[in-house]
Amino acid sequence: MSHAIAPIHTPSAWKGSAIDYRAEGLHRLSEAEIDEIDAALAHLKRLGEVDFPAITVENFPLPRFGEFLRDLGRVLRTGPGFLLLRGLPREHYSVDDLAKIYFGFGAYVGRPLPQSWHGELLGHVLDISDLETGARGYNKGGSQRFHTDSCDVIGLMCVRAAVSGGASRIASAMAVHNALLAANPDHARELYDGIPFRRMEQDAAHGTGTLTKKISVYACEREEISVSLSAQYAIRAVQAGDAQADSLGMAALEHLEQIAASPGYYLDMNIGEGDIQFLNNRLMIHGRTGYEDRQDVRDRRHMMRLWLRVNGWSALPERQSNHSDADYQGWLRQRRPAMEMPTPYLTRMATRYDILARQVALYPAERAL
């Protein structure tokens, strides 16, 4: 690390106890904006079956609201780093139309990135851990620890809320940085220097093949601080023997998480059905509170996720990138047209659930073992 570490004094360095997202980062859609959205959806549907990558600002025209979305990258970069869109009438749209609207919004903000080796451009955050062996974190229920994703901006749209709980828990990585630096400069320096992260085997196999890499949790490039956090990848590195559980890096990572998880620093944001949350993934860390879900997969909490690369933003420092452009290219080769469309995806999950339910009914003792 070649520069001195200094506290960060920007609008993104906020504490959860001192900020109200409804005052600082909430945009309520007006009737005129909803009319524009409906007109854009109707225009898109007149073109026939348009696959997600082909949804563009040209075929999803939003003359006025589009300017708001185009400016979102600047807002997220210079402000507190988050925005919640509210007011889209969820009950007026099919789930597939919601996905098209959401993807259309994303086209104004940036370019969608694949989210795993499967190549999906639209992710479904849904608990299918009882239906799929080795389900990833976003396909499991319960709480999630703080992390970042491999993009500039992450979007989450709520399709169906949980019975209770499941709030988005966010924190300013910049405020956490300042607290960590004040409490233990050695820990801060260690996170800048980097610690080993080990990503998922299939992601590596369908990408560059690289499994383990030293990642700088914090980095400074062109006088801008950014964060890249995945405690799960760090734990995987320890389990594989690439790092030591008692290392200074792991202690520093734990210290960071302790600060972020303290009530003075985090902010809980309730994302209602039809709401869309956008986060600057370079400044914010995010997780999720625990929640009560429904049993039938058709009725479970369901969010749709976008990873966006924003035009005009400089590339994330290479030492912070868990995944490279070569990885994304490899993943996209696995993608099939319209594979992310919600209705067929949910139909597949419902079929698996029904098969499992029949097995439990026929062989309850065996399934309980």
What is the first-to-last residue Cα distance?
52 Å
- The total tally of domains equals 1
| Uncertain residue segments | none
| Overall outline | globular
From the coordinates shown, what is the CATH architecture? 4-Layer Sandwich
| Relative strand content | 15-25%
Number of helices: 13
Q: How would you describe this protein?
A:
- Helices cover 35% and strands 20% of the residues.
- Helix 6 (173-183) crosses helix 7 (185-193) and helix 6 crosses helix 10.
- The protein has 369 residues and is α+β, with helices and mostly antiparallel strands.
- The protein has one domain (16-368): Clavaminate synthase-like (Double-stranded beta-helix, 4-Layer Sandwich), CATH 3.60.130.
- The chain has helices at residues 21-24, 31-46, 65-70, 72-78, 95-109, 173-183, 185-193, 201-205, 231-239, 248-260, 325-332, 342-362, 364-368; strands at residues 26-28, 82-86, 111-112, 123-126, 144-147, 153-160, 164-165, 168-172, 195-198, 212-215, 218-221, 224-227, 266-269, 276-280, 284-288, 291-292, 302-309.
- A hairpin with a 2-residue loop joins strand 11 (218-221) and strand 12.
- The chain contains 13 helices and 17 strands.
- Strands 1, 2, 3, 4, 6, 14 and 17 form a 7-stranded mixed beta sheet that branches. Strands 5-15-8-13 form a 4-stranded antiparallel beta sheet. A two-stranded antiparallel sheet has the order 7-16.
